[in-house]
Design a protein that fits this description.
27% of the residues lie in helices and 22% in strands. It has 444 residues and is of the alpha+beta class. Strands 1, 2, 4, 7, 12, 13 and 14 form a 7-stranded mixed β-sheet that branches. Strands 16-17-18-20-19 form a 5-stranded mixed β-sheet, with helices on one face. The protein has a 4-stranded antiparallel β-sheet with strand order 5-6-3-11, with no helix packed on it. Bound molecules: zinc ion.
Length: 444
């Protein structure tokens, strides 16, 4: 029912994959702005006459010998990887060997009809929506890479052999949320706040008040970007893509975040109580804000494990819901995050998750929210609790020097920031082994 809360009230199963979270984030170089795309080493061409084939080309640099599918994508999706002079590239186990002296590599990707083959929005596929008139590009299923660095992409849209340049894109570094992009469509809705624009693509649910969300989301994202000290969060265009769900998809809000686009789906529950506009609005707002926080915080380039990534996104999404929703609606959505019987502490859940137990992910959303609340409510300083937590993240540059698998290091870094004592409860939510003993829980 609710994106990313993990522990879901029956009967609603919610998916919480968030593809980009699966990739480690490390320190990054700067990201080119959209204006830099004129120096793109990539060109993507889509053709309205053959909308289910996307053509990519990439300029190579001296010393390049191999290219590979971005984001560990499926090499089988790429047809005819070749040098632009016609020589084929040689298939390797996880990529292609470039012919010697080749300066530009090209490939074709067969894409899907997003209406005829609808798929789960947590694993968005590159495809075309003929009804809504746009292409969705998902990096893993459309792009090859020659390096992990960020770069510009030029996009060309053709029809009857007449091609025009479309919006330039930024291909994020491999350590940031991936490229998702909606191309070629006239957005169904455009909202602006300060210098930030949010465009809606695809068919959004018919729900009173939902058209106010894009403006509110732009405002929220600018606010978060400023609070976290991320100047690049202003002046960007952010796309929100609604995808058609599959006919047999269980009810829930499905979404995943890209660098400056996120995709979503709503499958309404058959339970009349969960069909009310107020509940649907609560679910959509909180889910959208969660994804938007991923996109904003992804610009920090912080190396966060999944428990930090997901718990912070849910904490800030809920705080935004507290401000945006009616009190009763917020109370309802907040209750979905309130119970976590038998959940392991966060670092234990992360260890089990790292060992291959994907079900542990659900705990990051619920226990994680509780952890950050306990921390934020005890921070010194001025402003709201979320403002103080954002300041802590900003000052520590995204906990850059903290071992986020070490409970004592985490608590000490928070206390060491001059933010006051962290209650024992927070330590217990991280790791039970350390939460007894001294008054602070930290062994003397
Ligand atoms: Zn998430």
């Amino acid at each position: 029912m609710i994106a990313c809360t993990g522990r879901q009230p029956a009967p609603a199963a919610t998916r919480a994959l968030h593809r980009w979270c699966l990739f480690a984030m490390a320190g990054l170089g700067s990201v080119p702005t959209q204006a830099d795309a004129s120096i793109a080493e990539y060109v993507i061409t889509v053709d309205a006459d053959a909308p289910l084939v996307l053509r990519g080309s990439m300029r190579l640099q001296a010393g390049d010998t191999t290219v590979w599918p971005a984001r560990h994508g499926n090499a089988g999706a790429f047809n005819e990887v070749r040098c632009s002079d016609g020589r084929p590239a040689e298939t390797l186990q996880s990529g292609w060997q470039i012919p010697q002296g080749c300066q530009q590599v090209e490939w074709d990707v067969r894409t899907v009809d997003l209406n005829a083959s609808p798929a789960d929005a947590t694993v968005p596929q590159t495809g075309h929506d003929p009804r809504q008139g746009f292409w969705l590009i998902s990096e893993a299923s459309a792009l090859l890479r020659r390096s992990d660095e960020s770069t510009g992409i030029a996009v060309r849209i053709c029809a009857s052999d007449d091609c025009r340049d479309s919006t330039p894109l930024v291909l994020p570094s491999a350590n940031q949320p991936p490229l998702y992009a909606a191309i070629g469509a006239r957005p169904s809705l455009v909202a602006q706040h300060v210098a930030m624009t949010i465009r809606i693509h695809g068919e959004r649910p018919e729900l009173p008040g939902i058209d106010e969300f894009p403006h509110a989301l732009a405002e929220t994202m600018v606010h978060w970007g400023d609070a976290l000290g991320i100047p690049a969060s202003r002046g960007i265009v952010y796309d929100w893509v609604w995808l058609p769900p599959a006919p047999d998809q269980p009810s829930g809000f499905y979404a995943s975040a890209g660098f400056d686009t996120f995709v979503s789906q709503l499958v309404v529950s058959e339970d009349p109580e969960d069909q009310t506009p107020a509940r649907l609005r609560s679910i959509i707002w909180t889910g959208a804000a969660h994804e938007a926080f991923h996109s904003v915080s992804g610009r920090l380039g912080a190396d966060w494990p999944a428990w930090v990534n997901e718990s912070l996104a849910s904490y800030f999404a809920l705080e935004s819901a507290r401000q945006r929703l009616d009190a009763a609606d917020f109370a309802w959505i907040d209750r979905q995050y309130a119970h976590y019987p038998e959940a392991p502490p966060l670092l234990e859940a992360q260890r089990r998750y790292d060992a291959g137990d994907g079900s542990q992910r659900q705990h990051f959303y619920v226990v994680g929210v509780h952890f950050w609340r306990v921390v934020a409510e005890n921070l010194d300083g001025v402003g709201s609790t979320q403002a103080k937590l954002a300041e802590l993240i900003k000052q520590s540059r995204g906990f850059a020097r903290v071992d986020l698998s070490d409970p004592i290091a985490i608590i000490r870094s928070i206390e060491g920031s001059g933010s006051g004592a962290v209650p024992l409860e927070a330590l217990c939510l991280l790791d039970v082994d350390h939460c007894v003993g001294s008054p602070t829980g930290i062994a003397e």
